Structures are given as C-alpha cells and as structure tokens.
Amino acid sequence: MKGESLHPAAQGLDAADIAEAFATALGRKPGALKADEAAFVAQIAADASAEELPQGSLSDIGAAFADFWRFGETAKGDAPLVRIRPWSGAGGASYGRDLLEIVQPDRPFLVDSIMGEIAEAGFPVRAMFHPVVERGGKRWSMIQVHLDPVGADRETALVAAVAGALDDVRLAVADFDAMQALMRRTIEELAAANTPISAEEKAETIAFLEWLEGEEFVFLGARVYEYPRTPDGGYASEEPLYQPEGSLGLLRDQNRRVLRRASEPAILSKAVHTHIETTPPLTVAKSNLRSRVHRRGYMDYVGVKRYGADGKPSGEVRFVGLFTAEAYDAPARDVPLIRRKVAGVLAAAGVASGGHSEKRLRNILETWPRDELFQTSEEELRGLATGVMHLFDRPRVRVFARRDPFDRFVSILMFVPRERYDSGVRERAGRILAEAYRGRVSAWYPSFSDAPLARVHYILGIDPGHHPEPDLAVVEADIAETTRTWGDRFDAAVRASPPAAGVAPTLARWAGAFSGGYRDFYSADEALCDLAEIDAMGEENFRTRAYRQVGDASIRFRFKIYRRGDSAPLSEVMPILEHMGLKALIEDAFELTPQGAGGPETVWVHEFLLEDEGGEHLVFADVQDAFETAFTAVWTGRTESDGFNRLVLELGVSWRDAALIRALARYRQQSGLDPSQLVQEQALQAHPGVARLILDLFRIKFDPAIAVDLKAREMQAAAVMDEIVQALQAVESLDHDRVLRRLALLVGAVKRTNFYQLAEDGRPKPYISFKVASRELDDLPAPKPYREIFVSAPHVEGVHLRFGPVARGGLRWSDRRDDFRTEVLGLVKAQQVKNAVIVPVGSKGGFYPKQLPRGGAPDAVRAEGVRAYRTFLSGLLDITDNIDADNTVVRPASVIAHEGDDPYLVVAADKGTATFSDIANGLAEAYGFWLGDAFASGGSAGYDHKVMGITARGAWEAVKRHFREAGKDIQTTDFTVVGVGDMSGDVFGNGMLLSKHIRLIAAFDHRHIFIDPNPDSAVSWEERKRMFELPRSSWEDYDRSKISPGGGVFSRALKSIVLTPEIKAALDIKADAVSPAELMTAILKARAELLYLGGIGTYVKARGESNADAGDKANDAIRVNGSELRVKVVGEGANLGLTQAGRIEFARAGGRINTDAIDNSAGVDSSDHEVNIKILTGMVERAGKITSREDRNVLLASMTDEVAEHVLAHNYDQTLAISLLEQDAPGELENHARFMVELENEGRLNRRVEGLPDPAQIAELAAGGAGLTRPELAVLMAYGKLDLFDEIVASAAPDDAAFEQILEAYFPTALGRYDDEMKKHRLRREIIATVIDNELVNICGPTFPSRLRAAAGCDTGALITGFEGARRILRFGETWDAVAALDGKAPAEGQLALFRALAHTLRSQTYWMARRAGSGGVDALTARYGAGMAELRALTPGILSTFEQKNVARRAAIFVKDGAPEVLAQQIAAMQPLTTATELVDLASGLGWPVASAARVYHQVGAAFSFDRLRAAAGEKRGGDHFERMAVRRLVEDMLAEQAQVARAVMTFAASPDAAETSEQAKSTVTSWAQMHSGPGRAVKRTIEEIEQAGGGWTFAKLTIANAALRELANAAVK
After folding, report:
1. Which DSSP string corresponds to 1204-1273?
2. Count of CB atoms within 10 A of residue 599's CB?
3. 1516 vs 1501: CA distance, rounded Å
C-alpha cells in the first residue's frame, strides 16, 4: 500500500513470518521445520523486538538466525562454541552490527555472566536472543548478542573473555552440589566441636550457616585449609596447607587465592596468628576474588574454623560466592548473626523501647550496609551506629572507619549533611581518604534516605602492614572543608579580603554570578581574583591575567581573558598566542552574570593553559606584565599580531617596543630589497641580544628621559653601534645578519621619532612615526630622498618622501600593501620633475589603510580611509618643527632631533579633493601648526583644482603646443581624440571641455567603455559639459541619442562586446566581437590625433619592458607599446600613463609627447601658489591687517584667475623650453651627456632610474645624428633646475634687494600692499630662487649654468646677477612676450627661430654680465651698463660695421619670411651684436668717451681688420667635440678682446671723441691709425687674403692662424 512503512517494526515481526523466513533460509518449505528447529525459531520470535533489530528484510533476519542455528548444530560435547561475525544482508550490505554467538550445554548463570563480561569490556548491547533447545537428548543454550562493530583488534580479547566466564560458570555449577554438601559437613562438624564461644553464639553461627545453605548464598568455590602446628602446640610460621583435591568450584584453580590477589601469606603473620586465636569460629568478609559468574563484584568470603580435640582451631573451610539479592533485602531481624548484633547494639545503647531514639537507631542499623553488618563485630557496630545517631540532631561531616581483619582494605562510612552533598564532595572526600590511608578507592556506594544525612560507603584498598593510621578528626575536618559549598567559601573569601567596593555590594553583585561549571573549576579565592579583574575593566571591556599555579612546569603558565558581552572567539585568540610562540594546551570558558546597575551583565572568562616550548630560559615574573599588556594591546587594536610580538616574551619588553621593531622592519620591507617578514621575525627571535641592542640604540638616541645633550647621545649611540657590530660577528646566517644589520643601520639613520610622545589620555600614541635620512642608507633603491617619514599603526602604514627641506607633493591612498613605498617612489620621481617649476622640490606620500571593511559600503570604506589618513598625517606632524608668532622654530614635545630645524611640511590630497585637504588642514590647525590651512592645498578655502580646471588647463597648454608646432590650431579646427577617464573626473572632465572642436571617438575608465565612431564636435561638447556639471556621473549617463550611429556605452564587466561596423571602422578592428580588454587595447592603438590620459593607470610601455616593469598589474591586459600608438600627440593629464621608456619609444617613432610631470604640473604649481599665499596671509592675519578668516577667504577667491594666469604661464614656458631644447638636441647631445655625468658624479642622478641613455646609447645616438627626445629633455631640464635651485639658495643672490620685484611679481597684485610681510616671508629666498631658476633654465637650457660658470670663471651668485642684469639691460622680457604673442599668427617654426635667437642673445649677454658681476648686485650692474645698452640699441644696426649690418638684415629677412612682423624681426636680428655692449661701455668709460663714439670706433676696427668676418666664420664652427667647441669659443673671445684692445689704441690715438662723431669719421680715424701701424695691419690683411685664396672655407686651423696675426696687431697697438 502506498505510504506503508517497510520497517519490520511496522509489520509487527509476526512469529509466522519469522518462522517462514527462517525456514526459507534453511532451504525448507514453510511448516516443514523439525521440532527442535521450530522450538528454536519460536523462542527467537518471542524475544524479537522490531525496535532492537535494524531496518531490513525478513529474509535477512531469517538468514541471520538460520546461520546461527547451523553454527549451533556443530556443537559437540561440553566445550562451548564462541564466535563473532558481522551481520550482512543477502546483497552483501552491512547492517552495522557484529553478532556474538555462544553455543554450549545449558547451565545456570550463563546469560548474566556473558552480559557482565560484555558490559565490562565496554560494548553496548543492541539485542540478545537466548533460545534453549533439546538436541540429541541434551539441552543447549544458544545465545546471540547483537553488538556494535567490535573491530578486529578487539575481537580476540572479547571471545577469550567470554570463554573465560563460561569456564568459571562451568566450574561453579559442576561443584555446586559438592559445595553444598561440604557446607552441611562443616555445619555438623561445628555443632559437634568444642568451641571457645557460648552456646548461644554457637547456635547463632550454625543458624547463619544453615541460612546460607538455604539458598541465600550462591556457592562459587570452596577450599579446606589446615593450620600447621609446632610440637609445642603452637602455630608454625608456614603457609596454611590445603589439598588441591579438597578445592571445589572456582577454587579448583590453584592460582586463585581468597585473601590476596597474588598469593596467600607465605607465613602466618602476627596479624593472622591473632586472627586465628581470637576471632569467633565464623568469619564473613570480602575476598580478593572478583566474580565473573552471575554478578560482577568481589566475592563474599565465609570462613568457618575447624577445631581439634584441644579446642584450638586446626584449620578452616573457606567458601566464596555471592550473597543473593534476597539476602540483602531481608530485614536485619530475619538474618541470623545480624539479628543478634542488632539486638545487642540496641540493648547496649540504652534507648527506651519504642521511643524515638530506639526507632532512629533501629532504622540506622536496618539501613546499614549489609556487608558491613556481616563483617563488623557487635562492639564496633555499636560505636559506629550510636555515633551516626548523634548526627541526626546536628548534621555534620563524620567518618567511621573499619579495617578489614586481614588488613587488606578499610571500610569507611562517611556522613555528610544532605544539602552539602554532591558528586564533587564524594570525589573530593574519596581523594582525601585515599591520601590519608595511602590507599586507593576500590569502590563507593552512596545512599540517601529521608534523613538529613547523605552516606557514602567507601572501600579503600591498602597495603597490608604498610599504611598509616590517620587521625580521623583531621580527616573529617578536611572533608568538612571540601563539603562546604562554593558559595560558603566565596562569602568567606570576600569577608576575609574585602574588595574596595565593600563586602555587601560585592556579595550583592557577585554572589549569584558564577555558574556551576565555574564553581566546579575554580576556588572561591580564584573567583575573588577574577572579579577584581572584571571590576577593573575600563571602557575597553577587556582584561587579561597571566599566572602560574604550584606544580606548573617551567615552560607552562595560565592565562585568563575577561570580556564583557560576547565570548572571545578562539579563532581570534589562538593566532595571537601562536604569534607569540605559545601553544594552547587546554581552553575553558565560563559565562558569568554579575548584577549591574541595569540588571545582569554578561562577562566571559576564558582560561588557557599555555606552553612556551622555547621559553626554558625565560623568567615568568619578568614577562608576565609585558605579556598581559601585549595581548590586550593586540586584542584592542593598539598593536598588530605577528611574530614580532614574540620579542615581548623573548626580551621581556613592552608591546610598544615590539611595535617599534615591527615598524622598522616594515619600513625595510618596503624597500623591496630585504628578506621576508618571516625571516626578519626569525632573525630577531634567534638573536634576542642583538634585538635588545637595537632597541637600546633607539632609546639612547631618542628617549627624552635620558638627560644628556645631543653630543653625549651620539657618543653613547656610537658605542652601542660598535657593540651591535661586534655581536653580529657571532650571527652565522647571512639572512639573519642582513636583517639585523640593516635594522641597526636604519636606527642610526633615523633623525626623529614620536615614539616617546604621549596622547591626550596620557598613554603612548597608538601609532609610531620616524624620520629617516635616506641617503645615509646604502641599500635603498634609487633615487634616495632627502628625508622620509614612515608611519606605522595597526590600521595604516604610510611613507612620506621628500627630496629637500622645502618640498611638496600629494598623498596617495594606496592599494599596494607590500610596496606602497615603491609606488610612491615612482610618483615622487615624476613629482621631482614636476616641482622644478615651483618653490618646493618634490615630495610624495602614500598610505595604505589596512583595516578597510571587506565588502563594506562605500561610506564605511571611506570612513576607515579617513581614519587611516588622519593617523598618517598625525604621524607626520608629530615630528615636524613648528614656528611661533615670533618666527622662532619650536621643536615638538618629547622629540629629540638629530638634525637641524625642519618646519616645512606641505601636503595635498593626491586627487585634489577639497574634503581630504580640509581634513588635513583641520588637523594641522588642531596641532597649532604654523602653516594652518596652507598645510594642504586645494581645500574648501583654497584653490580647488577641479573647479579651476587648472591641471587640465595646464596639460592643454602642452597639447596646444604639440599641435601648433605641427601646424594645427585645435582651438579652431576639429580634431579626433581617444582618452582614458570619464567626465566626472577633474583632469579628463575639464580637459575634454577645453576645445569645442574635440571629436571624442572613444574613452574608457574603470567602469565603462564609451565609443562615438563619428562624433559631432558641437553636440558631443554640450553633452560632455552636461555630464561634467552633474554631481556624480559615469559614461553610463551619456545621452545615447547624442552618440553617432553604431556607437554606445559598454560595461567593462561584460565577457564579450559585439561590434558594429562603425566601431570596427573607427578602431580598425576586424573581429565581430571582442572582450572589453581587447576593445580598450584597440582604443589605445586608434588612429586618432590625440590620446588624452586623465585616469589612473599605466597604459603604455616600451617593447623592451615587461608588464611587471610598468608596475600596474590591473592594466596588464590592455597595455600597449609606445611604438604601437598611432596617435600624433599624447597629452598626459594624469600621472604615470606611460612608462618613461614607453614615452621615449613613442617619441622616437615620431610622436609628440612630453612627460606627465611637464603636462600636469599646473596642479602642483597652483597648490604651491596657494601654500605660499596662505603663508603670507597668515603673517598678515597675525599682524592684524586681515581681521577674520572669512575676509582672508574672500581675498583668496578674488585672486583665483590671477593665480591661474601665473600657473598657466609656467606650463607655456616649460613646454616652449622643451621645444627649444628639441631644436638643438642633436647638436647639444654631447653637452647633455656631460651634464648627466656631472650629476651622476655628484650623486644627484641615476640614469637608469630616470630612463636617460647610458654612454653606449649616447654614442649610438651621436652616430645617428640624433639627440634626446622630448621626454628625456624634460627630465634633464628638471634636473638642471633642481641642481641650479640648490646652488641659488646656497648663494647670496636671493638676498639682493633687486630681486624683491621678482618676489612681488610672484604674488597676485592684491597682495602687493602687504610689502612688509612679503619681505619677511618664510620662503622668500626659495621663491626668488625658483622664479630665477625656472626662467634661466627655460630660456638658456639645463646645461647653461655649469657651462657658463666654467667659461666665465664665476660662481652661481655672479651667474644669477649677470642673468638678471642681462635681462634688464636687454629689455628681454618685452621682446620675448612679443614673440609669444605670435602664437597662431606666425608659423610655429618661425616663432621658434625667434625664441632661439633671443635665447642665444641672452646667453651671450649673461656671459659678459656674469664676468662683470661684482659685489654691488643687480642694480649696480644694470646702472653701470643699462644706459649704454639703451643708447646702443637705438643706434643699432646703423652703428654696426657694414658686414654686421648685412648679417642683421639677412637674419631679419629670414625671420620675416618665417612669419615675424618686420619690426620685431629687425629688433631681434639686431640684438645679437648688442651683446658686446658691456665691452663697449667699459671701453668708453675707461677713456671718458661717449659710448656711441666708442662703439663706432670698435665696429670700424672690426671691419678694417676683418674681426667681424672672422668671428662670423668661427661662429659657424658648431661641429666637433666639446673641447673643439670650447677652443672655438675661446678663439672668439680672443678676437673680441683683441678688437677691443685695438679700438682702445685707436681711441687713444684720436684723443677726442670728436674723431668718431659719425661712422665715417670713425672709419677715417681707424684708417689713420692703421697707416701708422702698417706692418701688423698689412700682415693681418695678407694672412686673411692668403687663407681665402687657398679656398676650402674657414677651418679651425685657418682661424687660428688668422687670429695669430690679429694678436700681433693687438700687441703692437699697446706699445
């Protein structure tokens, strides 16, 4: 039937069904069973219970019993058959049971004995069947026991045990009649014997034996003994004698002894002698034999003495067996022997018959352990029973002991007040008793009644003759103590040691707090310790305690955790302990519920037994507190959990010291050059002595509590370092040596730390920061910063790298846990180049939040990031100097500085977000930091980069220049673009709105891919503008209707993107579908005109680089090579879009590109202006000239546009500078190479790091007539600026008052009224140096300063003075700006030619001015030469020689042809000859002539003797190596000096300036002078004519010969 159960239980196990299944299994038809078979299966069916049998088919059940039957049929004789077999069904499936099967002749006690053996072996019984069958005229017991699987390893033992029990049953049953007969004879003998007891006692004894004979005793064995006698009638000290044939039942086994397990006494001891002579004829006791028959337990021993004719005992009959259950249950008054004892006790007690006491005493005796009544004498019983009776009125602990007559055991009755008793009391009392008797608890029997007492009967096994006789009063006291309730002891403990809260409040709070499990585990005194720890918990709701107990091994101790609320998960606890080198052997946890103000609280107590396998040498007391505080610090998040915490135990230091070591090691790890953290941990653990010395070195350097001066600290530190070096000699492992040595050297290079600063709560700060002089460490990757600050905390790590005392750069939220320093170092290299345009040098910071919520909501992630950011900033500010209102540098509290003042620290959020900058500025102001909200630029009260669009606008200057120089104006002409980024971003969003002629074909960010195959520039610009103005947006928000046919927006999460024909055409893709990665790669390779990078990531590398070299694993799948780019221009609005090698590869392939540092420098430039403006306004605020921060903010906002103009001008100038360098790159290659060598020799440049060519590559370029590319030139230009900046700052040049106008021009005009504060600006000199540095290098090139100093023989101060003086007297700025105004009006090539000409003029003029720069500064220099230059400018070119006039006209014509206005072209062409103005002014001044007259003579001398022609010829000699060019330059300088010398002689000859009123007069005067010096003059003309007639042009050798003739002329002129 559907739904019917097939389980046998549901079928009722019908007997007929079983019989049928049984018959079928035997191969018979139903109803054809034999009689014995039918009887067998009927008994089986009667016993069968469905619940006891496993679920299975009846056929399998029948088969199991049929197999059992067949097994039984094999039985022969009396020997039992025993086997164990598994029960399997017909298909071989196991039923999960083993069947123990026994077949033997039927006897009593079989089942009880077998089941007892199974129980003792520990096997649970599932079912048992015991059919008894007649077969062959004999009754057979067939026993089948169903067991859980026994297992092969235990099967033999179980079969042997069962067989042994069956053998005992056989022996006992076989001799049962004989033993009863022996008992009868014994009774009769005793009745006839002459015994030393009364007739009444004798009769009672015989009655007892007859009572036993009457089936109250199960006879299991008997033996007859004789006592050996001496001739004098005494007892011999020999073993009692017995005849083996006189032994019956179990005692047929001669190895079985009644009174001792091993053997009977070898001699009759004194105790036995006494027993024989003094005890009654009957002895009832427990034997030492355990019964395996009928019932498990020690057999009862009944000994009946035999008497000789002399009335003395001559022997003994010993019976062993078991009192029957009826014997135990019978009332005491009905049991012979016992009844007499009871009556005697009642009579002797003197209690009134029928009274309360008599009833109580009778009850006591009636319930007395029956074995004890048998074995205890009347006298003993009386004392024991009356003693118990007295307990009823005053229940208390009492112990009553009775020793076995043979001294084998002690029987103890313990009485305990009932309410005090539990299993724990029984166990503890048993231990006390066993210890008191130095014995063992063999058995215990608790008993309960309605009396107020609980009783436990203990049997203690003892060593005969070798046990103490304890004072039972002491024993009782000990037991009484252990029976006291836990609550009693707790109450007493509280009262004995009152807590601070008081006794009553403590008991009220804690009395009911402890669970039963806790009470079982801990004493009240321990509870008092625990509650003290719990009540001492602070807000952390967590506390720990480490301790030892008596007996704990030296490498073990105990540890408790107290936690309010939830329990402490083991998964969180165990790693902390393991990291400290500890193994938890045992863990227990208890929940406590003390009463709090609002009701019950929950507090968890965890205890661990810990083992420190490597801690044999540690002293627990020395590390106890350190361990507790370290664990708490880890748990509460104040420190981390790792192997460094082992140092807490190994050195006995605080967790802060371990955290310091961790921070130092983590810094070393960030270098990427050190062994793994595991090796670091192992090294420190293996060499604790060195680790301690490293900590000592740190402490000596920085602990403010050490009251010594800095010099003494340094001396002591040097001594410790020597110790470390010496100790390292014993370190065998190279890895360990490297770890320890580098940590020690790192400490040596640390200059400051906040380690000893305290937080507001008076505790050490939960983070550590230290400042490192990186260049003092040899094993750091290049480039090495000037300083770096490392910050370490459990939730954040970060580093801030600075390349100079005054440095700035952003802080990056890094996602690179293990190498964020590498990431920051890569960024700061670009920042260095970028910062060449601003006052500070490059810096960069990065922090890695280590506890971001996994899978957390954005707000939660951001909140944790902000927490990490604040900690990182705090670590920086903690160790940075401050400046007070008096402009005095102030050291941070508790900071020892091993360096000079260092107050300048400026940062910014890497993404320029106002929120993060506001956080930083708020923190700075909370610190009272002198920069205030100038600490982080771009905040809400500052210049927001995104609002200004300044970074993108700066990058756009580069993009415009690239296209302008390629002949395209992208502000008026459509052009195609692909890009990286989206419209919500600052750089990309702003950038894609900077021209309305952008046709954005494709772009992607980390979420989407945007493709517009044929965009409408106007429509798409409007849509991008709409998106940019949204609060938040992605490409998904782009209006699809504004996308050209075939385009769309695709998620990067897609597995595949189906391409339209339009997309395939736009991106040159042949496949119909591609993955998102393949599509983005195609975008990067697109044939657009501009690739604009506005998103984070490195997308282009060089062919020779691997993806790993790019350092951006996230974009490995889409990255392309520089040579694969097909755009014309790359604009790097974002950082690190290309590797430097990738840029160079693209540039060598003809692409136009700078570097990210050049293109996006406007952001950092804007931030630097903001910082410097805020420093100034801060001074103004403190002076009271700006009265509120709101007024200050209004002022800042009003200057936004002007700041932007300043910044964008720098972007314009830098890209122009690179273009000018590019024009001359092939010819300047050697100079560039020499400059790189100089920087390398000074340790300021690493070519490999910066991607600059090595000497072999330089030679290859030179051979190919190529120069450096724009990316390389950008780097070299930056290094030129950085190098010059340091030298300017180190010189006195910035102190020249003439440069104050540069300072004023740096700031917006609105700040001009704060002149006094401006002059006192903290960075006044640096600002001036930066402006001059940039202008000089931008115009004159990076190699110019070093070359000019060498040529002019001047220092940097003279160079700067000469440069500024040259600019002023040339009115250079006006002309330069006029050329810049030709953007879009003149061809770029022509415009660049004008710029180059101007730059050449300025370089020449600077040379002459630098040689004349004295101590008077710029103003003195311009005053000396300015007027003369102005006068000569007005007369040029007319005042020049005819040859030079022609050259000027020729140059002007070229400029005009290239698109320059004629006036401007003429002006620039005429400027080069003006570079001799300084010489002319000096010439005129020396002779008192007007400068114009002196100039006419000078130029006519040049024409008369061909100086102008020869100089022009020399100027054409631009080939050769550096030394050849230097020789040419010296030759030209000689010619100029010689020309001036001859001119001076002519002027002296003329005597009056009237001789040079006009050029004709000057020419006549020169002719007259020449006639007087015709010899040298004719020699010059002749030499020149001969050289020219020889043909072949002017070589250096020819010029040298000609110059020799000119030198002779000059020498003759001065005679």
Report:
1. HHHHHHHHHHHHHHHHHHHHHHHHHHHHHHHHHHHHHHTT---HHHHT---HHHHHHHHHTT----HHHH
2. 7
3. 21
- Give me the phi and psi of 449, to 5 degrees please: -140, -170
Closest CA relative to residue 407, chosen from 439, 370, 453, 361: 439
- Between CA 495 and CA 502, with CA 501 as vertex, the angle to 5 degrees is 35
- Strands 542-547 and 583-592 turn out to be unpaired
Task: Give the per-residue pLDDT at 691.
Answer: 94
What six digits make up the tokens of 164?
């042994």
- Show Cβ contacts of residue 843 under 8 Å, excluding neighbours closer than 6 positions: 785, 800, 801, 802, 803, 807, 808, 809, 828, 831, 835, 906, 907
User: Residue 1414, class by beta-carbon neighbours within 10 Å (0-12 exposed, 13-18 middle, 19+ buried)?
Assistant: exposed
Residues 1051-1061 as b/e (b if ≥16 CB within 10 A, e otherwise) read ebeeeebebee
- Write out pLDDT tens, residues 1276-1300: 999 999 899 999 999 999 999 999 9
Q: What amino acid is encoded at 58 in this protein?
A: L
| 813 contact partners, CB below 8 Å, separation of at least 6 | 846, 847, 849, 865, 869, 910
What gap in Å lies between CA 435 and CA 1596, rounded to an integer?
118
- 76 part of the active site: no
Give the amino acid at 1081. Answer: T
Average pLDDT of 108-128? Answer: 91
Token pair for 1397: 């000409």
Look up residue 234 and give its amino acid: G
Task: Please name the residues in contact with 1310: beta carbons below 8 A apart, sequence gap of 6 or more.
Answer: 1195, 1198, 1199, 1202
Confidence of residue 267 (pLDDT cuts 50, 70, 90): very low
Half-sphere exposure of 937 (CA within 13 A, CB side): 25
Q: How far is CA 1228 from the centre of its chain?
A: 51
Measured between alpha carbons, how far is 735 from 758 in angstroms, rounded to an integer? Answer: 36
Residue 1333 is predicted with a pLDDT of 94
Residue with tokens 């040579």: 1123
Burial 1145-1169 (b: 16+ CB within 10 A, else e): bbbeeebbbbbbbbbbbbbbbbbbb
d(CA 474, CA 481) in angstroms, rounded, equals: 11
The two structure tokens encoding residue 614: 């490597």
Print burial letters for 57-74: b (CB count within 10 Å at least 16), e (below 16).
ebebbbbbbbbbbebbee
Predicted TM-score (pTM) of this structure: 0.68
DSSP letter (8 states) at residue 1135: T
CA 121 to the chain's CA centroid? 54
Q: Which of 87-91, 114-118, 289-293, 1128-1132 has the lowest mean pLDDT?
A: 87-91
Q: Most distant CA pair in the chain: distance in Å? A: 187
Which residue pairs from 1441-1444 have beta carbons closer than 8 angstroms and sit at least 24 positions apart in sequence? 1441/1499, 1441/1500, 1441/1502, 1441/1503, 1441/1508, 1442/1503, 1443/1502, 1443/1503, 1443/1508, 1443/1509, 1443/1512, 1444/1473, 1444/1499, 1444/1502, 1444/1508
| Sequence-ordered alpha helix ranges (H) in 1251-1343 | 1255-1263, 1270-1290, 1300-1306, 1315-1319, 1324-1340
What is the rounded distance in angstroms from the CA atom of residue 1283 to the CA atom of residue 123? 91
Strand partners of residue 1074: 1057
At 1177-1196, the pLDDT tens digits run 989 998 899 999 899 999 99
> What is the mean predicted confidence (pLDDT) over 105-125?
91
Q: Which two tokens stand for residue 1070?
A: 């042949």
The residues, any chain, with a CB within 8 Å of residue 178's CB and separated by 6 or more, are 222, 248
User: One of 560, 844, 1128, 1174 is an active-site residue; which one?
Assistant: 844
End-to-end CA distance of the chain: 146
Calculate helix-pair angle for 1462-1469, 1442-1457, nearest 10 degrees. Answer: 140
Reported as type and span, the H/E element at residue 542 is strand 542-547
Give me the mean pLDDT over the 142-152 stretch: 92
